[in-house]
TrEMBL record:
Pfam families: AllG. It comes from the Bacteria. It comes from Actinomadura spongiicola. Coiled coil: none annotated. The lineage of its organism: Bacteria, Bacillati, Actinomycetota, Actinomycetes, Streptosporangiales. InterPro entries: AllG-like, OXTCase_su_AllG_h-dom. This is DUF1116 domain-containing protein.
């Protein structure tokens, strides 16, 4: 109001104007959330409008959200968990057979995703298990392998139960060579098999003679050669390679071209200097790795597993520490709920198909490789890899939008994985169950697509989302152990420090 005596604006008016942020001095902009019809109507009238991708939390989740968010130690637990995730320092330290590092007995196989038995296994999972039986000499023919598996001749266990991750079907047998990755900061160890390449390979469910011959060669030549190179080189800082690769256009799930080149630059001199590796074998190993742009993927997965495992078992934390698929189920594990799996039906990816294949040939999503998204790579780093859209579909703007959307459901920005196109902003990292449920935004995963029939191999690549129920179920479990406001610490931890 004005001063009636002088008709002047009182002295406190500038402060009020400052508090209003200049709203009266510029044109208004409408923010529209929910139904698109309102935003569309405004846009049709040339009214500036900012659409917000928001929907109300699913019915029945309000009580659980209140319990978890009202836990007095919840925020500190999440801060601790995500801090451990982003400060992990995974190093490649060795390459050794699975029977040595994992203690696998003959007839025991690891697989990707949540627990699974033969009866519920999808086509590519069955194909990979058949191939593993042939490789280990437990069957002479594919049909004989199927019959043996039907009779329960093999023990099946999830890779994650053994601090391991496996791409696609993720099947690991005792004779397969494993990358050994140690976390130099927190002390954990993670493992992953060697990458076979693309096309008809075991991880996509193929098991023909060329698949078994390749795996046999990898066991006899590639594994020992890499072991000699890694031991001669010494511990190799994988996060340093990953950080550089992100700035060179990789997202470290479906695009590993830069990371593979950087890895070979590190290991090639050590391999050539290793006297125990004949020159022809060293050349063959380098030729194989250099001809496979995804060769680094498995090392990156093991690095991601080490980072995620560093954040496990923080009571009260709603941080996701595993996202994995077995071709039938999609499962997540959460820091505050231990090794418990929360599962739902795996979805079929939406993407581009090879040759004459189409959606009808695709199996539901499969593989442990979503461990990359779990720690801020893959679909969460799409803005760093615009060229990925040529492989998974969409436009460059879609890649940028996907990364921006993931900031809404994560706890932090990665201090090491920085995206040039976002002014070197860190990738979104640390999927938070409560944020996923509150916003309705699901993690985006870029992935390969396996053929649904055993023996087919890869049929395409694309993007996929988890089933929403896995996060709501995890939220319910967290709520059951949450402390009410006014109580200190978390269930099972009187100090609140875990």
């Amino acid at each position: 109001m004005t001063d009636p005596a002088s008709d002047r604006v009182p002295d406190h008016a500038p402060d009020r104007a400052h508090r209003l942020g200049g709203l009266l001095a510029r044109d208004p902009v409408v923010v529209a959330a929910g139904a698109e019809v309102f935003a569309d109507a405004l846009a049709a009238q040339a009214v500036p409008v900012v659409p917000v991708d928001w929907r109300p939390p699913p019915a029945g989740t309000g009580t659980a959200l209140a319990a978890v968010l009202g836990d007095p130690g919840h925020a500190d637990a999440n801060a601790r968990a995500v801090r451990r995730m982003v400060t992990a320092r995974p190093h490649l330290v060795d390459v050794r057979p699975a029977r040595e590092v994992l203690g696998l007995d003959t007839g025991t196989f690891l697989h990707a995703g949540p627990p699974l038995d033969w009866e519920r296994a999808s086509g590519p999972m069955r194909g990979a298990l058949v191939g593993a039986m042939l490789l280990e000499g437990l069957a002479e023919t594919p049909l004989g392998a199927e019959h043996a598996l039907e009779r329960g001749a093999a023990t099946l266990e999830p890779c994650h139960r053994h601090a391991t991750v496996g791409p696609m079907a993720g099947v690991v047998g005792p004779s397969m060579w494993m990358l050994v990755v140690e976390d130099a900061e927190h002390g954990g160890t993670a493992y992953c098999s060697l990458n076979e390449g693309l096309g008809k390979v075991l991880r996509y469910g193929a098991y023909g003679p060329e698949v078994i011959d390749r795996l046999t060669w990898m066991g006899e030549v590639l594994g020992p050669a890499l072991a000699a190179a890694v031991r001669a080189h010494g511990p190799l800082d994988l996060m340093a390679i990953i950080a550089r690769a992100v700035q060179m256009g990789d997202e470290l799930h479906n695009r590993n071209r830069a990371a593979t080149s950087l890895l070979l630059r590190e290991l090639a001199p050590a391999l050539l200097a290793a006297e125990e590796v004949p020159r022809d074998r060293a050349a063959a190993a380098l030729r194989f790795a250099a001809g496979n742009d995804h060769f680094f993927l498995n090392a990156g997965m093991a690095a991601a597993k080490a980072c995620a495992d560093a954040a496990r078992n923080v009571p009260g934390s709603s941080l996701v520490v595993a996202m994995a698929r077995n071709g039938t189920d999609f499962g997540v594990q959460v820091s505050g709920t231990g090794d418990r799996w929360f599962t739902g039906p795996a979805n079929v990816p939406d993407g581009l198909y090879l040759g004459g294949y189409g959606p009808g040939d695709a199996n539901p999503d499969i593989g442990d490789s979503a461990i990359t998204e779990t720690v801020g790579m893959g679909g969460f780093a799409l803005a760093a890899a615009p060229a990925i859209v040529r492989f998974v579909g969409g436009e460059v703007a879609d890649a940028l939008a996907a990364t921006h959307r993931m900031y809404e459901i994560t706890l932090a920005e990665h201090p090491v994985l920085q995206v040039p196109s976002l002014s070197f902003r860190g990738t979104p990292v640390g999927v938070d169950v409560t944020r996923v449920v509150r916003t309705g935004i699901l993690p985006v995963i870029d992935t390969g697509i396996a053929g649904r029939e055993p023996g087919t191999g890869q049929v395409g690549a694309g993007l996929v989302e988890p089933p929403p129920n896995v996060f709501a179920d995890a939220l319910d479990a967290l709520a059951a152990s949450a402390r009410p406001p006014g109580r200190q610490g978390f269930a099972g931890s009187p100090t609140g420090r875990g």
